Amino acid sequence: MGQQVQQPAQVQKSKQSSRRRIVIVIIIVAFLLAFACLILWNLINEGVLHGAFFDTLSKILVAIGSATAALGGILTVYIGIASALKTFLAPSTDKTEQSPGTGIPATPPIPAPSSTLAIIPPPQPQTPQRATPQSSITSEFITGSFPPTDLKTIQQRRKLVEEVYSELTKLNMNCIVLTGIGGMGKSTAAALVYKYAEEQRKDDKGPFAAEALWITVEETTATFAYLAETISAVLGKPIPDFGKLPPQNQAAALYNVLNTIDHSCLIVINQFENLLDSQTGQANDLGLGEWLDILNSRLCRCRVLLTSRPMPRGTQDYPPTHVKEYPVAGLATNEGVDLLRKTRCSDRAGDGCRTAYRSSALCRPRALPGAAGVDLAPQSKPEPAFAVQQSALCSTLDGRHWQHRFC
Question: Does the structural domain 142-327 have CATH classification 3.40.50.300?
Answer without folding.
Answer: yes
